[in-house]
C-alpha cells in the first residue's frame, strides 16, 4: 500500500473502522511511513487529551429521579388497565415507588414473591439487579477505592467474606461495594469502573449448580460467569464480552488468597 | 414486557449518555436537563419501535431531535448557521464573556475549544470521542451520510488542533519554562 491509497483510511483506522485485509496492509504501511504514522498518532493523541481533559457529564440524581417519577406516574395509570397480563420484571423496578396507587403496589409485591421463587436464571437476575442499582443511583453502599475498606464493610454485613481486589492498574478501578440478592440469598457486589462503564461483580460462596454458559448477553448487557476455588463470580456490564470475561476470570483466580 | 418496563430496562441505562450529549450541545446544565426530560417523554411514547440491541443509538437520536427542537424554540441562531459562517465562529472573538472568564486554567483550554466548536462538528466529535460510537451509529443519530460524519469529524479535529485557545496555551507553556 502506498500513501495515496493509505491517506483516506488513516483516520478511519484510528477510529477503529478499518479491519480485515485492508486494516492489515494499512498497519504495515504505518510502520514504514512516518508521514501517515504521524497523522494516525495525531488522532490518538487528541483522543487521549480529550478523554483526560474534557468532562463526561453524568446525569444528576435529581434528573434521574424526575424521569423515574414521570415513568412511574404513567405506569401507575396504565397498570390498572393492564393488570393480569403479567409484567415480568416490573416489580423489581418499583423499589422507589412513592406516588403509585396502593392497589397497584400490592399487586406488584404479590408478583414479586412469585417471580422470586420461580426465578432460576441467575444471569437475568444479575442484569436486573445491575439495572435496578444503576437506575436508583445506588450502585455503592460503601464508596471506596480501598479494598481494605470495602472488604471489612461487606464481611460485617454478610455471613461470608468476599475477596476484594482493586485492579486499577489493569483498568478496572474499584469504586465500592453493596449488598444485593441473587438466587434468593444475600450476595456481595463489588463495583468497578472501566473507562466510562460501570461493572457489577456479584460474589457468593460457591454452590453446586448445573453448569451455565460462561457468557451471555441479556438486554444489551454482557454477563460473564466463572467459579473460583471458593466463590462464584458473576460480572455484569456493557463492557465488551472478551474484556469482561478476562476480568472475571482474573478475579476468580485470586479468590483462594485471603 | 410493557412499554414502561422496556423503557426502564433498555433506555434509562443510557441516561448518562443522553445527558452528556445534551449538555455538550446546549452547553448548559439546566437546558440539558430540560432537553433530556423532553427526550424521555418522547422515548416512552415510541418505545415500542425500539429493536433489541440498539437502544443507545435509538435514544441518542431522540435526544438530538429534542435538542434541535429546543434550539428552534430558544436559540434559533445556533442552528441557522450555514457551513460558510461556521469557520468564523471558531475564533476567540466568538467566545462568550463567561467562556473568556473561565478560560484561565490550562486544563480548561481544550474543554473550552470543544464548547466553541460549531454545533454540527461538536455533535459528531462528542459522539465519537466521548460516547465511542461507530461512524454508522453517528450517521444514524445525526441523520447524515457516513461520508459526512468522516468529513465533519476530521474538520472538528483540525479545528481543535489549531484552535486559538489551545495555541495560546501551548505558546504560554513553551514560554513558561522558567
What report would you give on this structure?
- The complex is a heterodimer of chains A (258) and B (178).
- With 258 residues, chain A is of the alpha+beta class.
- Chain A has eight helices and seven strands; from the N terminus they run ααααααβαββββββα.
- The termini of chain A are far apart.
- About 6% of the residues of chain A have low confidence.
- Chain B has 178 residues and is mainly α.
- Chain B folds into two domains: 80 residues, RNA polymerase sigma factor, region 2, helix turn helix motif (Rna Polymerase Sigma Factor, Chain: A, Orthogonal Bundle), CATH 1.10.1740; 97 residues, Winged helix-like DNA-binding domain superfamily/Winged helix DNA-binding domain (Arc Repressor Mutant, subunit A).
- The longest helix of chain B has 20 residues.
- The C terminus of chain B is likely disordered.
- Chains A and B meet through helix 3, helix 4 and helix 6 of A and helix 1, helix 2, helix 3, helix 8 and helix 9 of B.
Amino acid at each position: 500500500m502506498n500513501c495515496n491509497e493509505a491517506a483516506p483510511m488513516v483516520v478511519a483506522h484510528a477510529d477503529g473502522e478499518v479491519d480485515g485485509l485492508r486494516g492489515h496492509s494499512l498497519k504495515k504501511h504505518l510502520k514504514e511511513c512516518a508521514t501517515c504514522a504521524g497523522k494516525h498518532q495525531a488522532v490518538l493523541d487528541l483522543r487521549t487529551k480529550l478523554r483526560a481533559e474534557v468532562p463526561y457529564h453524568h446525569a444528576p440524581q435529581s434528573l434521574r429521579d424526575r424521569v423515574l417519577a414521570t415513568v412511574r406516574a404513567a405506569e401507575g395509570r396504565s397498570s390498572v388497565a393492564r393488570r393480569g397480563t403479567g409484567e415480568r420484571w416490573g416489580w423489581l423496578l418499583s423499589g422507589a415507588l412513592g406516588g403509585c396507587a396502593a392497589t397497584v403496589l400490592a399487586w406488584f409485591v404479590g408478583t414479586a414473591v412469585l417471580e422470586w421463587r420461580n426465578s432460576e436464571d441467575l444471569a437475568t437476575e444479575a442484569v436486573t439487579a445491575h439495572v435496578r442499582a444503576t437506575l436508583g443511583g445506588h450502585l455503592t453502599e460503601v464508596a471506596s477505592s480501598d479494598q481494605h475498606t470495602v472488604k471489612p464493610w461487606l464481611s460485617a454485613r454478610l455471613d461470608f467474606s468476599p475477596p476484594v481486589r482493586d485492579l486499577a492498574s489493569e483498568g478496572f478501578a474499584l469504586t465500592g461495594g453493596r449488598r444485593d440478592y441473587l438466587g434468593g440469598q444475600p450476595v456481595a457486589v463489588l463495583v468497578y469502573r472501566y473507562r466510562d462503564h460501570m461493572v457489577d461483580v456479584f460474589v457468593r460462596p460457591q454452590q453446586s449448580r448445573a453448569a451455565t454458559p460462561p457468557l451471555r448477553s441479556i438486554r444489551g448487557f454482557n454477563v460473564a460467569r466463572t467459579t473460583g476455588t471458593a466463590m462464584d463470580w458473576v460480572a455484569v456490564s456493557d463492557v465488551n464480552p472478551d474484556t469482561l470475561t478476562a476480568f472475571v476470570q482474573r478475579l476468580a483466580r485470586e479468590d483462594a488468597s485471603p | 414486557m410493557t412499554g414502561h418496563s422496556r423503557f426502564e430496562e433498555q433506555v434509562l441505562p443510557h441516561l448518562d449518555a443522553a445527558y452528556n450529549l445534551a449538555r455538550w450541545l446546549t452547553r448548559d446544565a439546566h437546558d440539558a436537563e430540560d432537553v433530556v426530560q423532553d427526550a424521555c417523554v418522547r422515548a416512552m411514547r415510541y418505545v415500542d419501535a425500539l429493536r433489541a440491541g440498539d437502544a443507545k443509538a435509538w435514544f441518542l437520536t431522540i435526544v438530538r431531535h429534542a435538542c434541535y427542537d429546543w434550539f428552534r424554540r430558544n436559540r434559533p441562531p445556533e442552528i441557522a448557521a450555514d457551513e460558510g459562517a461556521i469557520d468564523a465562529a471558531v475564533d476567540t472573538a466568538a467566545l462568550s464573556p463567561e467562556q473568556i472568564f473561565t478560560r484561565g486554567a490550562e486544563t480548561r483550554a481544550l474543554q473550552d475549544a470543544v464548547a466553541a466548536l460549531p454545533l454540527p462538528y461538536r455533535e459528531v466529535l462528542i459522539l465519537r470521542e466521548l460516547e465511542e460510537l461507530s461512524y454508522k451509529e453517528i450517521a444514524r443519530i445525526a441523520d447524515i451520510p457516513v461520508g459526512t460524519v468522516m468529513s465533519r469529524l476530521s474538520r472538528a479535529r483540525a479545528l481543535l488542533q489549531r484552535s486559538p485557545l489551545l495555541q495560546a496555551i501551548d505558546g504560554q507553556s513553551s514560554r513558561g519554562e522558567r
